Each structure stands twice: as structure tokens, then as C-alpha cells.
Amino acid sequence: MMNEHDLPPDPPDRDPVDRAIHDLQKAEHDLEVAHEAEERAEHELKAAERELEEARHRETDIIVNSRERKVPGDKVTFEEVVALAFPANAPPPPGQLYVYSMTYRHAASAPHSGELGPLGVVHVKEGTIFNVTRTVQS
Questions:
Q1: N or C, which end of the chain has less CB nearby within 10 Å?
Q2: Is residue 65 part of a domain?
Q3: Contact (Cβ atoms closer than 8 angstroms) between residue 113 and residue 103
Q4: pLDDT at position 9, please?
Q5: How many domains does the chain have?
Q6: pLDDT reported for residue 73
Q7: Splitting the chain (138 residues) into consecutive groups of 10 residues, what average pLDDT does each group show?
Q8: Are residues 68 and 125 in the same domain?
């Protein structure tokens, strides 16, 4: 009795040597196709790794208070944008402190526009716009 995993018997008119040669050629072909697919996948993986590394070290041009600024990578923090907006940040008058508010638009992250608060992070792309205001709080 034959179970479902057994191969059917060979037809009596097929030479076992011919069948073995055919099976060997098919196996060699299958190995060659698999090897080509593996090489292609390795090439694609290396290309993706290079792209990630380049993205990590590139600079992005953003606009802060109508001035173009370059930032490393593709994300910025609230504090970094404040430093770009007010680079010569003099201390506030005695007994007072500065409070900053910020809006952004055309960002890479979702939402693409909104308000950013202290310790906030935004994923940026070329041309992301930030408007930063400073008020004195007494």
C-alpha cells in the first residue's frame, strides 16, 4: 500500500539512468536559482544599509524664524530649535525668565504641523518650517 509521501513507481519504459540525470540537472538548476536569489538579496541588504548610514549622517535644511538652518540627521528637539532661533540667548532681566513657544509645519512626522513643547521631538525633512517666539515671564 502506498502512502501520500511515497513517490509513484517509475514507468517501466523510462531508463533509471536517464531519470537520475534529469533529476540531477533539475536539482542543479534549482540550486543555481536559489544562489542567484541569495546574491540579489545580499546586494539589496547592503544597499539598504548604505542608505541608512548616509541618512544618519546627512544634514537637513530647515527654516527657523524665516532663516535657513542646517541640522544633523532627520529629527530635532524643542531645545535645539530654540538654540537655532536665539543663538545669542542673553539671560532674561533679573527676577524674570524666558518662555518659548513654537509651531512647525511641513514636517516628516505625523502630524505634519502643530505645536512643539519642551522636550518634544519632530522628524524633519527639507524645508520644515519652525516659528519660535520668546516672551518674558515675571
A1: N
A2: yes
A3: yes
A4: 54
A5: 2
A6: 87
A7: 52 76 87 92 91 80 96 93 87 84 95 95 96 89
A8: yes
Distance CA 9, CA 84 (A): 79
Residue 62: what pLDDT? 97
Q: 102 has which bridge partners?
A: 132
Q: H or E stretch including 53?
A: helix 16-57
120 and 53 in contact (C-beta within 8 Å)?
Answer: no
- Print the domain residue range for 94: 59-137
Please state, in angstroms and rounded to a whole number, the distance separating the CA atoms of residues 61 and 16: 70
Torsion angles phi and psi, residue 60, rounded to 5 = -120, 135
Q: What is the pLDDT of residues 27-50, one digit of tens each?
A: 888 899 899 999 999 999 999 888
Residue whose entry in the numeric block shows the C-alpha cell 518662555: 99
8 Å CB contact between 75 and 128 = no
Q: Which amino acid is at 125?
A: K
Structure confidence at residue 12 (pLDDT): 58
Cβ atoms of residues 113 and 99 within 8 Å:
no
